[in-house]
Amino acid sequence: MTLTSTARRLRRPMFRERRRETWYAIAFVAPAAIGFVVFYLFPAIRGVWLSFTDYDLFSSGEFVGGANYAQIVDDKVFWNALLVTAEYVVVNIGLQTAVALLMAVLMQRLAKSLVIRGILLVPYMVSGVVVALLWQWLLDYQIGIVNNALDFVGLPRQSFFGDPALAILTVAFINVWKSMGYTALLLFAGLQAIPKDVYEAAAIDGASEAKAFWRVSLPLLRPVLALVLIVSLIGSFQIFDTIAVTTKGGPVNATRVIYYYIYDLAFNRYDFGYASAIALVLFAILLGVTLIQLRLTRANKSDLA
């Protein structure tokens, strides 16, 4: 028996084992891959095609070129929806990040209990529809607990969902309440990753608590803050459930955000071609803003290095 034949015999079981492991890996990956292709990739490609047609569910749709995109330029409802969305994004991200950062600092300094962290996650784990129904009842003009409390202390009742000046702010508040616990835990994890030696060095240099936070914690928290801002930005542009339950885009388009406008065009007016075009414009906006955020926040760099 030659050395070559012996080596071949030894390699055969190894090849069989590798082949078996490969099939196991394919079996585990296949369901997720099939789901991605069926529910994400194919609809995305079809959406791109539909954006160049006048498909309306009742006909096969004809190719119209860039007519749908040209229509966007003169669509006042689209520009109003984009403006309302921008207002919501600014309020939601600004308030949510500020409150979550405060909660994260308080958890780090005062309370590190697992029970408290679990309680903070409860609103985030609840369905968005349930949260919207809860706050719709709490803020109801006639029977809502909040308005009854205002009336009790002598303040006028407020139409939180019926007043154009308050509606989008109310929707933003609801989603801040729902998501701030999750955001706070992300920031808390980032604070925990900062070495204690850095704080000790700052204390030796005479830095106060406030100064250590602004000069040490915030700069070292930048990668996590960048992640939080990007995730919050994308989620804010996709706000739908709260508006669909509470205001349905009203009053007077005051809460008709871009996501709800796309839904209204596609599933109420059956104008899938135009809705797909707006969806692609929204994708381009999100991609551009995200890249700008990554560049400005330097998310891939840390001051700890």
UniProtKB/TrEMBL annotation:
Protein's membrane topology: Multi-pass membrane protein
The organism's place on the tree of life at top rank: Bacteria
Keywords: Cell membrane, Membrane, Sugar transport, Transmembrane, Transmembrane helix, Transport
Membrane-crossing residue ranges in chain numbering: 21-42, 88-107, 119-139, 159-177, 220-240, 272-292
Record bears the keyword Membrane: yes
Location relative to the cell: Cell membrane
SUPFAM superfamilies per UniProt: MalF N-terminal region-like, MetI-like
ABC transmembrane type-1 domain: residues covered: 78-293
Any Pfam family the entry gives: BPD_transp_1
Main localisation: membrane
Family under the similarity heading: Belongs to the binding-protein-dependent transport system permease family.
Record PANTHER family: ABC TRANSPORTER PERMEASE PROTEIN, DIACETYLCHITOBIOSE UPTAKE SYSTEM PERMEASE PROTEIN NGCF
The name this protein goes by in its record: Multiple sugar transport system permease protein
Organism: Asanoa hainanensis
